[in-house]
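If you are new to this repository, start here. Below is one unmodified record pulled from the training split, so you can see the exact layout before writing a loader.
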Amino acid sequence: MISTYSLAEPTLHRPLPLLLDSPHSGGRFPDGFVCNATETQLKTGWDAFVDQLWQPVLAVGGSLLSAQYSRMFIDLNRAPDDIDPAMLSHPWAGCNPTRYSERGMGLIRRLALPDVPMYNQLLAVEEVTQRIRDFYLPYHQALQGQLDKLHQTYGAVWHVDCHSMKSTGNRMNVDSGQSRPDVVLGDNDGLCSDAGFIQVVEDAFSRLGYSVVRNQPYKGGYLVTHYANPAKRRYSMQIEINRALYMNETQFVPSHRFSAFQQDLAKVCRSMADYVQSQCGEARHG
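And here is the target side for that same chain:
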């Protein structure tokens, strides 16, 4: 059985309905995987160490789901049919490409970097369906199951989709060539999260001295829009953190600031937990 994800539950006896997930922090590839990109080029799509950075959420009652396999193999933050049909050896009705696929960043990557194709050959439909079955669906089933369990217990659940971003966008990004802030919070322009919760998160980062922007250039991807349902007290938001805050972007190793940044994220987690705790009574009886 392939282990495609890890789910860590809180160290407290009573968990909170707070779930963080890190769909792009995995770096593994299946045995025998072949592509055109180099190891270094593949690492540029890696949300390096994001799952480690957010470990402090466990100490305040939250859970943490993280991927084991690389987004360059299959991207868990895309719809299961967001596939570029031009990548396939045969026509397939299972393709419904979005703007992500148009930029080479769909469920199955067409480009590792601008002008760097992932593959030298077309992919068989059977290979794509196998990736979805064995690597994509288990992660989403685990995420759905944990969200459902917490929501059933508390009547509400807060989901935070955790990512990292290059300090400067490249030509595959909507903000190509622009320097990025420290933190981008995405809630699909207010449609996916609890306004009070996202304000608490913004304030927590701002108090620590970080520059924070909402919904530019990231509003939240498939995971946020798919799992959010505020009318049923299912809240989702995305957090993008600038890689320059904690790692060497060219060597893909933690920088001397890693520990201090993780300690700051522990304070953000505490603020999240305090807010969720304050809402739990209302959520159970609402």
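Two things worth knowing about this chain: The chain has one domain: 5-285. Residues 125-154 form the longest helix (30 residues).
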